[in-house]
Prior knowledge:
It is a single chain. The protein has 2 domains: 44-77 and 142-329, BirA Bifunctional Protein, domain 2; 354-454, Rossmann fold (3-Layer(aba) Sandwich). The strands form 7 sheets. Strands 3-9-10-16-13-12-11 form a 7-stranded mixed sheet. The chain is of the alpha+beta class and 455 residues long. The chain contains 13 helices and 23 strands. The mean pLDDT is 95. Strand 14 and strand 15 (308-310) form a beta hairpin. It has helices at residues 5-15, 36-55, 72-76, 79-82, 147-152, 154-161, 206-223, 271-276, 321-332, 368-382, 397-407, 417-421, 445-454; strands at residues 18-20, 32-34, 60-62, 84-89, 96-98, 120-123, 127-129, 139-141, 167-176, 191-201, 231-236, 247-255, 258-269, 301-303, 308-310, 313-320, 333-337, 343-347, 356-362, 388-391, 411-415, 426-431, 437-441. It binds adenosine-5'-triphosphate. Residues 177, 179, 188-189, 192, 194, 261-264, 318-320, 322-323 line the site of adenosine-5'-triphosphate (ATP).
Amino acid sequence: PAKTMDELVSLCKRRGFIFQGSEIYGGMQGAYDYGPLGIELKNNLKAAWWRSMVYERDDVEGLDAAIVQNKHVYKYSGHEDTFTDPMVDCHECKSRLRADHMKDIKVCDNCGSTNVTEPRDFNLMFKTNVGPMVNEDSYTYLRPETAQGIFTNFKNVVDSTSRTLPFGIAQIGKSFRNEITPRNFIFRVREFEQMELEFFCKPGEDEKWHEFWVGARKQWWLDQGLAEENIQFEYVTGDDLSHYSKSTVDILYKFPHGFEELEGVANRTDYDLGSHTKAQDEFDITAKVKKNEHSTAKLAIRDLEANKWEIPFCIEPSAGLDRGLLAVMTEAYTEEELPNGSTRTVLKFKPHLAPIKVAIMPLKKNKPEIVALAKELKNKLQKLGLGRILYENTGNVGKGYRRHDEVGTPICVTVDFDSIEKEGAPVTVRDRDTMEQIVVNAADLPAYVINYFIN
Ligand code: ATP
């Protein structure tokens, strides 16, 4: 794995994974842009999550709700009142700091001064104006989590799918938090993506499902290539629990800057649906909720056995896509010493995550038959639907191997003179991890590639 953030940052920029946002204007803190390979990796990680959370289960539906929603969503969700981080000002260097790690120390981590204010609450939501009129009522917020769109659509999804408990709703999308101190590359940023599941169950079955999801989510991260010894659980208690949570287990990963939260699995009880439902008095809501004067829908489901309407409990595994990508890159980053004394950098991604699945390289740039066969193979493999297959005609296969090691391409295929002269059109297939090369006939290449990626 990568030892320092700097080596990752530098590889990400050099090879086109991640760039500083607004870089040509001096950058913008807490915002990053995903480049040609970053977007592929991101899409692959999202697809793996969706596959496991939606397609491989028959009790989860998908959703893509709007980012900008009615401000009442955040009034009743509790975010307007409580979605804050403690902040201190340093009198010495005039910086503002997120204070939760300074609970006891009270030292500015920018300049070391002890001349700092008492912590005060800072709301992390971005406020924005909606519509052409600017007045007291024309504001709302950019969503700080995707979850609220799931709760507000609860009735729509139940009515349109006839779901009964337990079932879940999954969503991937952007969230925004005006973090006081964004830092550690894409670990803490102001605009990021979340992959969230809200899993609804009967009250009383919540603890069982909470435990289930903690285990399932850890297994999923292992399946993305993270090593067991780099994952830890943290049981969140007391003051650190969010306003909606009965209990939370954080899944931590050993990032280059230490063990930190990758995903939180929270038992949100009946807090959210209970907060957003109309006719709150008709239900036995266990969570402490604000009296709702605006909702137009009952967010309840019929319990067929008891023959009554009830508000389910909710278990939420909430993962950060950007943090996930950082974890996967950290883990995949490998520097290897080769027998000839040189070193190579390899990103040992799991095949399903690799931004480029196969690179096809003609040995000679200007030999029309070689070029034609290479292009034909590219088109054939592309049609398999595995992801990006790259035809790359630089005429330097050695350099190509090095570059593709560095971006984690599992397979490189070289088309050479043998390919156009010998029967069966043999091509050379080179493996990223073992660096071994084998010869495969052109007609057998699709089956070879499918077998590699599907197993
Ligand atoms: P932290 O304590 O690190 O601020 P959090 O506990 O506030 O995180 P949650 O509200 O549980 O985070 O959000 C769920 C997930 O969303 C986190 O586990 C993380 O992966 C991701 N996430 C939250 N805030 C950020 C951020 N500022 N930048 C990138 N990812 C984030």
